[in-house]
Amino acid sequence: MLDPALTRRVTGWAAAGSVLLLAACTPTPPPTPDATTLASQDLPDFGHVHDVQVVRDDHSLLIATHTGVWTLGDPFQDDPGPVERVGTGRQDTMGMTLAVDGTVYASGHPAPGEQPELEKPNLGLIRSTDGAATWDPVSLTGEVDFHALSTASTGDGTVRVVGLDSGTSTVLVSDDSGETWSRGATVEARDLHLLDADPDTVVATTPTGLQLSRDAGRSFAPDRAAPALVLVDDERGGALIGIDARGVVWTGTPGTESWDSHGTAPEGVQAMTYVPDDSPGNQPWILVATETGLFTSRDLGASWDAALGADRG
C-alpha cells in the first residue's frame, strides 16, 4: 500500500484519502515485494521523499526531499556511486519536475532560518539549469507552495508549467516557463501531470478518482473508467502509467476504458517516475521511492530491485 504520509499534501486529502485507502483494500490484497531488509542507516536524512526524477542523458536520479535535492548515479550500474546532496540547498522541496531541456523546476519551503523576509514561507517557483546545484527564483516567491508540478513543450516550443497551489487547491498554468500565470480549476489533487503528447491534457489524481482536463487545467471532469490512481506519469504516445492506493501498477489511456493492471509496488511508496528508455540493450523502467529505499522495475512491477539500500546488488 502507499505511504499514509502522502495524504498530508493537500488540505482535505487526509480524510478523503483514508476513505480511498479503505475502499481500495480487499480481503486478499496482492502480495508486495519485501522491503523490510533494507538497512535504514544506509539512507540519508531525507525526512520524506516528495518527488523523484530521472535525468534522461545519464539516468542519474534527482530526489526531492524534506532536506533538499539529492542525487544518485544510474541505478543499473554496478557502482552508481554515493547518494549525495546536490549543491548546498536544504529547502523542503515539495514539488519538482524536469523539463525536456533539462531545466529543473521546483517549489516548497525555505530551510529553517533561511529567507525570513518572506511574507509566507513559500518558495513560489524556483528554477535550476545546473541539475539542482543552484536555484533562481522565477515567480510567486513568498506566495505559493506548489505540491505538484509538471511541464510539457507546446506546439510553438514554449514550456508550459502546471502547478497545484497547496494553499487553495487551485491549478495554476504558465505558458512562458513559469514567468506569468493564469488561474485554472480548483481540484483536490494529490498528483498532476501534463501529457507530453498533448500538453492541453492534464491528469489529476484525487480522492474520488482520476480527473481529466482537456483545456490545460482550466476545467476537470471525472475519468470514470480509469482506476483510482494516486501517482501518475506519462508512459508513451498519450498513455499513462500509475500506482493506485494498494500499490498496484496500471497502464492505460485517459478518457478510455483501456486499462491494464500489472505488478505491485513495494510497501510505503512516496513518489514514482517512469522512464521510457528505448536505447539499445535497455527497456522502459519505473523508479519508486519508499520509506525504506529506492526501487526499480523493468517489468511493470512484477519484480523490483533495490537501487538504494543494503540489499542492492
CATH class: Mainly Beta
What share of the residues does DSSP label as strand, in percent? 35-45%
Q: List SSEs in N-to-C order.
A: HEEEEEEEEEEEEEEEEEEEEEEEE
Number of strands: 24
The CATH homologous superfamily is named YVTN repeat-like/Quinoprotein amine dehydrogenase
Largest sheet: 4 strands, antiparallel
Spans where pLDDT lies below 50 across 5 or more residues: 4-41
**End-to-end Cα distance:** 25 Å
Strand order of the largest sheet: 1-2-3-4
Helix content: under 10%
The Rg value, from CA coordinates, equals 18 Å
Number of domains: 1
CATH architecture: 7 Propeller
Structural class: mainly beta
Number of helices: 1
**Mean pLDDT across all amino acids:** 85
Shape: globular
The name CATH uses for the topology is Methylamine Dehydrogenase, Chain H
Protein name: BNR/Asp-box repeat-containing protein
Summarize the structure.
It comes from Cellulosimicrobium aquatile. The chain is mostly beta strands.
Model description:
The chain has 313 residues and is mainly β. It has a four-stranded antiparallel β-sheet with strand order 1-2-3-4, with no helix packed on it. It has a four-stranded antiparallel β-sheet with strand order 5-6-7-8, with no helix packed on it. The protein has a four-stranded antiparallel β-sheet with strand order 9-10-11-12, with no helix packed on it. The longest helix is centred in the N-terminal third of the chain and has 12 residues, at 13-24. Helices cover 4% and strands 39% of the residues. The protein has a single domain (49-309), classed as 7 Propeller (Methylamine Dehydrogenase, Chain H), CATH 2.130.10. The protein has one helix at residues 13-24, and strands spanning 49-54, 61-65, 68-72, 84-85, 92-98, 104-109, 125-128, 136-139, 146-153, 159-165, 170-174, 182-186, 191-194, 202-206, 209-213, 221-222, 229-234, 240-244, 248-252, 259-264, 269-275, 285-290, 294-297, 305-308. The chain contains one helix and 24 strands. This is BNR/Asp-box repeat-containing protein.
